[in-house]
TrEMBL record:
<dbReference type="InterPro" id="IPR050091">
    <property type="entry name" value="PKS_NRPS_Biosynth_Enz"/>
</dbReference>
<keyword id="KW-0443">Lipid metabolism</keyword>
<keyword id="KW-0521">NADP</keyword>
<protein>
    <recommendedName>
        <fullName>Malonyl-CoA:ACP transacylase (MAT) domain-containing protein</fullName>
    </recommendedName>
</protein>
<keyword id="KW-0596">Phosphopantetheine</keyword>
<keyword id="KW-0511">Multifunctional enzyme</keyword>
<dbReference type="Pfam" id="PF00698">
    <property type="entry name" value="Acyl_transf_1"/>
</dbReference>
<dbReference type="GO" id="GO:0006633">
    <property type="term" value="P:fatty acid biosynthetic process"/>
</dbReference>
<dbReference type="GO" id="GO:0016491">
    <property type="term" value="F:oxidoreductase activity"/>
</dbReference>
<dbReference type="GO" id="GO:0004312">
    <property type="term" value="F:fatty acid synthase activity"/>
</dbReference>
<keyword id="KW-0276">Fatty acid metabolism</keyword>
<feature type="domain" description="Malonyl-CoA:ACP transacylase (MAT)">
    <location>
        <begin position="57"/>
        <end position="353"/>
    </location>
</feature>
<keyword id="KW-0444">Lipid biosynthesis</keyword>
<dbReference type="InterPro" id="IPR014043">
    <property type="entry name" value="Acyl_transferase_dom"/>
</dbReference>
<keyword id="KW-0560">Oxidoreductase</keyword>
<keyword id="KW-0275">Fatty acid biosynthesis</keyword>
Length: 370
């Protein structure tokens, strides 16, 4: 344990030292202060114009992956977060450790396992990123279930609430006796797709100008994907464990979800400006069940379309965008949408490999973003 802690401290010190020297020069600017927060030295720089905004994007269903690189366990915030998730999930009847083994494919078959694994890893990755970066995030965007993580990043939810909400979502889908469903990413615009969707296939997530996720009955979705591929149009199935959220087929599960969430978020908090909503169009952001982090917000988040593309348009020029995900599913989408002068570190993890932003060897790449 001590060696792991020392390795994390060494990596963090090297990382922050190089960043401090390169970004601020040999001496820290006026207004800089060194503070302590949960046992981790963090450099807080009060500087206005020279700091680039940092944005986090949290993915949802379809990004589940249990290929965790060994290096991550050397980071104390990561290990501590996973341990906390173990305890919470154990109380929900879920054993996290088997789900983190590469040989276990349950996360692609069982919806509760998928959410438990993904949410735990995202919480741990977020805590590790917070300890690594020297600047606080300027914004958060969540895709579908990823918005639950936005609630945590925004200070509206505890880590325990994140895991409970995610599990109640999975439990409602599992117990809702829904017909087999499917989801697929399609290379078309939202308006064009609306006119081509067959019966029982619905436009569910507006991801980019030319990328939409459809959701619906298993057979019709599979046939639609094959038809589009024959026409030379991009279409690819999403790992949704044979469920179809964000469609009318999910309404029975949505009603159960609302019931299971009773009392889970007793203290509703207003979302800050950092949390850019994807569960409603901007014209509805002032509605009570949209402006506040609440049980009803997450029911809406489960049933309504995902307005991800519209949310990403709020990412400013010169931003650094990080996809906080066990597996990247938005790299292409984000490159299409975010301003061209944004630097994308997408993803944190790829095929079980740790992105250089969390290693001392990759300091120079991160430094070049600021």
């Amino acid at each position: 344990m001590q060696s792991a802690r020392n390795r994390f401290t060494g990596l963090r010190t090297t990382f922050q030292g190089q960043l401090r020297k390169t970004f601020f020069g040999s001496s820290v600017q006026s207004g800089a202060s060194l503070t302590r927060d949960i046992g981790i030295d963090r450099l807080s720089i009060k500087i206005q114009d020279r700091r680039r905004p940092l944005w986090f994007v949290f993915s949802g269903l379809g990004s589940q992956c249990n290929e965790v690189p060994k290096e991550l366990w050397s980071f104390e915030p990561f290990g501590n977060s996973i341990q906390e998730s173990r305890v919470t999930l154990r109380n929900l009847g879920i054993d996290l450790d088997p789900l983190l083994r590469r040989s276990n494919d349950l996360i692609f078959k069982d919806i509760r396992s998928a959410f438990a694994c993904s949410s735990s890893l995202q919480l741990a990755l977020y805590e590790t990123l917070r300890a690594t970066f020297v600047t606080e995030p300027s914004g958060f965007i969540g895709h579908s279930a990823g918005e639950v993580l936005c609630g945590y990043a925004d200070g509206c939810l505890t880590a325990e609430q994140v895991l409970v909400i995610s599990d109640m979502r999975g439990r409602a889908m599992h117990e809702g006796r829904l017909e087999q469903g499917a989801m697929a990413a399609v290379g078309m615009s939202w308006n064009d797709l609306q006119n081509q969707c067959p019966d029982n296939v619905y436009a569910a997530c507006n991801n980019a100008a030319e990328n939409v996720t459809v959701s619906g009955s298993l057979g019709p979705v599979l046939s639609f994907v094959e038809e589009l591929q024959r026409k030379g149009i991009f279409a690819k199935l999403v790992d949704s464990c044979n469920y179809s959220p964000h469609s009318p087929l999910a309404i029975p599960a949505g009603n159960l979800f609302r019931k299971y969430l009773e009392g889970v978020v007793p203290n509703e908090k207003a979302r800050s400006h950092k949390w850019v909503c994807t569960s409603a169009k901007e014209s509805n952001w002032n509605l009570r069940d949209v402006s506040h982090c609440s049980e009803e917000y997450f029911v809406r988040n489960f049933l309504e379309p995902v307005w991800f593309y519209e949310a990403t348009l709020h990412i400013p020029n010169n931003a650094v965008v990080v996809e906080v995900s066990p597996k990247s599913i938005f790299q292409g989408v984000l490159k299409q949408t975010v301003p061209k002068d944004c630097t994308n570190f997408v993803p944190v993890l790829r095929d079980g490999t740790l992105n250089p932003i969390l290693s001392s060897e990759g300091c120079s790449r991160l430094i070049s973003a600021f």
